[in-house]
Design brief:
Layout lengths: L23 E9 L10 E3 L2 E2 L11 E4 L10 E5 L6 E10 L4 H12 L4 E7 L14 E4 L6 E7 L10 E10 L5 E2 L4 H10 L5
């Protein structure tokens, strides 16, 4: 189906074989957008990538979030435009560590205009769907890049235990969602874990 088609072609039905779950897992994966090898990107479908290939020497970075609501505040909002609607993605991180290394190697690059691509793992995996594992891994920042919207450190904050609350934003996104799917849940998870080591 062409990306400019405006006719729906999918029913909305009740999935009786797979339980719906809200929320995200505690681990996500961050990529420097400038290190994505876009020449090697392959789409499995209109809203699915089969991989996130990186340029030589690049790697992904694991993002851990503590607590029972990891990545709380991650959301997508669609708004009407003059020509077409676009989406805004927001990714919020709570960074408990307060160290010179983290400041220099994570926060400062974002302050200076760094763009990220982020992959979050949903608790809902869709393992009994026809496209098993397809909903598990969602990509943010692919189209426009996630950039820093705000970052606040309050040494007396109960929510961040004195660490940083960082909000990343991607605006004017032409798709409602983008997923990472290497063919199965296990294959996609293995792909992300392998990306943590530089090629």
């Amino acid at each position: 189906m062409a990306s400019c088609d405006v006719l729906i072609s999918q029913e909305i039905t009740r999935n009786c074989s797979d339980s719906y779950l809200k929320g995200l897992e505690q681990i996500g994966w961050a990529f420097n957008r400038s290190e994505i090898d876009f020449d090697k990107i392959e789409f499995r479908s209109e809203n699915e990538l089969s991989a996130l290939p990186l340029v030589s020497g690049a790697k992904a970075y694991k993002i851990y979030q503590a607590g029972n609501k990891p990545f709380n505040g991650l959301q997508t909002e669609i708004a009407a435009g003059d020509i077409a609607a676009t989406a805004t993605n927001t990714v919020q991180l709570i960074v408990l560590d307060d160290s010179p290394e983290l400041s220099a190697k994570f926060i400062d690059p974002l302050m200076n205009g760094g763009e990220l691509v982020f992959v979050a793992e949903s608790k809902y995996k869709g393992l009994k769907n026809d496209n098993a594992g397809g909903p598990a891994f969602k990509i943010y920042g692919y189209y426009q890049g996630l950039t820093i919207d705000s970052a606040t450190q309050d040494k007396y904050s109960d929510d961040s235990l004195g660490g940083w609350v960082i909000s990343l934003i991607e605006e004017n996104v032409p798709k409602s969602a983008l997923y990472l799917n290497a063919g199965s849940y296990g294959a996609t998870k293995a792909l992300l874990e392998a990306a943590l080591t530089a090629a």
